[in-house]
Design brief:
148 residues; alpha/beta; Rossmann fold; 5-stranded parallel beta sheet; 5 helices; 5 strands; 40% helix
Protein backbone atom coordinates (compact mmCIF):
# COMPACT_ATOMS: atom_id res chain seq x y z
CA UNK A 1 0.00 0.00 0.00
CA UNK A 2 1.33 3.41 -0.97
CA UNK A 3 0.26 6.69 0.63
CA UNK A 4 1.11 10.17 -0.66
CA UNK A 5 1.86 12.55 2.22
CA UNK A 6 1.50 16.10 0.95
CA UNK A 7 2.23 19.36 2.76
CA UNK A 8 1.37 22.77 1.39
CA UNK A 9 2.71 26.31 1.75
CA UNK A 10 4.83 27.32 4.73
CA UNK A 11 4.84 23.86 6.31
CA UNK A 12 8.55 23.67 5.51
CA UNK A 13 8.90 26.32 8.26
CA UNK A 14 7.47 24.16 11.04
CA UNK A 15 9.52 24.37 14.20
CA UNK A 16 10.25 28.03 13.46
CA UNK A 17 6.73 29.47 13.24
CA UNK A 18 3.99 30.08 15.79
CA UNK A 19 4.54 27.10 18.09
CA UNK A 20 1.33 27.82 19.99
CA UNK A 21 -0.64 27.02 16.84
CA UNK A 22 1.59 24.55 15.05
CA UNK A 23 3.69 22.92 17.77
CA UNK A 24 7.46 22.75 17.94
CA UNK A 25 8.02 19.75 15.68
CA UNK A 26 9.74 20.30 12.35
CA UNK A 27 8.30 18.86 9.15
CA UNK A 28 11.23 16.44 9.12
CA UNK A 29 10.31 15.21 12.63
CA UNK A 30 6.69 14.72 11.57
CA UNK A 31 7.81 12.82 8.48
CA UNK A 32 10.09 10.59 10.59
CA UNK A 33 7.21 9.78 12.97
CA UNK A 34 4.97 9.03 9.99
CA UNK A 35 7.63 6.81 8.39
CA UNK A 36 7.83 4.75 11.58
CA UNK A 37 4.04 4.51 11.81
CA UNK A 38 3.84 3.65 8.12
CA UNK A 39 6.36 0.86 8.54
CA UNK A 40 4.35 -0.55 11.48
CA UNK A 41 1.19 -0.38 9.36
CA UNK A 42 2.91 -2.00 6.39
CA UNK A 43 2.65 0.89 3.98
CA UNK A 44 5.06 2.94 1.91
CA UNK A 45 4.94 6.72 2.20
CA UNK A 46 5.89 9.22 -0.49
CA UNK A 47 6.50 12.67 1.05
CA UNK A 48 6.17 15.97 -0.78
CA UNK A 49 6.02 19.64 0.27
CA UNK A 50 5.67 22.71 -1.88
CA UNK A 51 4.91 26.38 -1.38
CA UNK A 52 3.25 26.39 -4.82
CA UNK A 53 -0.22 25.08 -5.59
CA UNK A 54 0.86 24.00 -9.07
CA UNK A 55 3.67 21.91 -7.61
CA UNK A 56 1.20 20.09 -5.37
CA UNK A 57 -1.15 19.49 -8.30
CA UNK A 58 1.69 18.21 -10.52
CA UNK A 59 2.74 15.80 -7.75
CA UNK A 60 -0.82 14.49 -7.31
CA UNK A 61 -1.31 14.04 -11.05
CA UNK A 62 2.07 12.35 -11.46
CA UNK A 63 1.89 10.01 -8.46
CA UNK A 64 -1.78 9.20 -7.83
CA UNK A 65 -2.04 6.35 -10.34
CA UNK A 66 0.45 4.33 -8.28
CA UNK A 67 -0.97 5.30 -4.86
CA UNK A 68 -3.78 4.06 -2.64
CA UNK A 69 -4.51 7.21 -0.65
CA UNK A 70 -3.52 10.79 0.17
CA UNK A 71 -2.77 12.36 3.55
CA UNK A 72 -2.66 16.13 3.06
CA UNK A 73 -2.12 19.28 5.05
CA UNK A 74 -2.95 21.91 2.42
CA UNK A 75 -1.80 24.81 4.62
CA UNK A 76 -3.39 28.10 3.58
CA UNK A 77 -4.59 26.46 0.35
CA UNK A 78 -7.24 24.85 2.55
CA UNK A 79 -9.23 28.05 2.33
CA UNK A 80 -9.00 28.92 -1.37
CA UNK A 81 -7.22 26.13 -3.29
CA UNK A 82 -9.98 25.16 -5.71
CA UNK A 83 -7.55 23.74 -8.26
CA UNK A 84 -5.99 21.63 -5.47
CA UNK A 85 -9.50 20.47 -4.55
CA UNK A 86 -10.09 19.43 -8.16
CA UNK A 87 -6.77 17.55 -8.39
CA UNK A 88 -7.58 15.62 -5.22
CA UNK A 89 -11.05 14.82 -6.54
CA UNK A 90 -9.70 13.78 -9.94
CA UNK A 91 -7.19 11.43 -8.30
CA UNK A 92 -10.06 9.15 -7.26
CA UNK A 93 -8.15 8.34 -4.07
CA UNK A 94 -9.38 8.52 -0.50
CA UNK A 95 -8.07 11.69 1.16
CA UNK A 96 -7.55 12.60 4.80
CA UNK A 97 -7.12 16.32 5.48
CA UNK A 98 -4.91 17.21 8.45
CA UNK A 99 -4.28 20.51 10.24
CA UNK A 100 -1.85 21.06 13.09
CA UNK A 101 -3.97 23.82 14.62
CA UNK A 102 -7.71 23.74 15.21
CA UNK A 103 -8.90 25.72 12.21
CA UNK A 104 -12.44 25.86 13.63
CA UNK A 105 -11.31 28.05 16.53
CA UNK A 106 -9.03 30.44 14.66
CA UNK A 107 -9.73 33.44 12.45
CA UNK A 108 -13.02 33.26 10.61
CA UNK A 109 -11.38 32.87 7.19
CA UNK A 110 -9.39 29.84 8.46
CA UNK A 111 -12.59 28.01 9.39
CA UNK A 112 -13.50 27.44 5.74
CA UNK A 113 -12.08 24.42 3.94
CA UNK A 114 -12.59 23.96 0.22
CA UNK A 115 -10.84 20.60 0.60
CA UNK A 116 -13.08 18.98 3.22
CA UNK A 117 -15.77 17.76 0.84
CA UNK A 118 -13.26 15.51 -0.97
CA UNK A 119 -11.84 14.15 2.29
CA UNK A 120 -13.12 11.10 4.12
CA UNK A 121 -12.08 12.87 7.32
CA UNK A 122 -10.64 16.17 8.52
CA UNK A 123 -8.39 16.07 11.59
CA UNK A 124 -7.66 19.41 13.19
CA UNK A 125 -5.87 20.68 16.28
CA UNK A 126 -3.86 17.62 17.32
CA UNK A 127 -0.48 18.87 16.05
CA UNK A 128 1.85 15.96 15.09
CA UNK A 129 -0.58 13.39 16.53
CA UNK A 130 -3.12 14.47 13.92
CA UNK A 131 -0.87 13.25 11.13
CA UNK A 132 -0.43 9.88 12.83
CA UNK A 133 -4.17 9.53 13.42
CA UNK A 134 -4.76 10.60 9.83
CA UNK A 135 -2.46 7.89 8.52
CA UNK A 136 -4.15 5.26 10.69
CA UNK A 137 -7.58 6.43 9.51
CA UNK A 138 -6.56 6.32 5.86
CA UNK A 139 -4.98 2.86 6.09
CA UNK A 140 -8.01 1.49 7.96
CA UNK A 141 -10.32 2.98 5.31
CA UNK A 142 -8.31 1.46 2.46
CA UNK A 143 -8.06 -1.94 4.14
CA UNK A 144 -11.79 -1.85 4.75
CA UNK A 145 -12.25 -2.05 0.99
CA UNK A 146 -13.38 1.52 0.61
CA UNK A 147 -10.12 2.68 -0.94
CA UNK A 148 -9.17 3.17 -4.59
Amino acid sequence: MKILVINGPNLNMLGKREARHYGSDTLKAIEQALAEKGKALGCELDFFQSNHEGGLIDFIQEKSQDADGILINPGALTHYGYSLHDALLDSGLPVVEVHLSDIRTREEWRRISVISDVAIRQISGLKKQGYLLGLETLVEHIRGGEGK
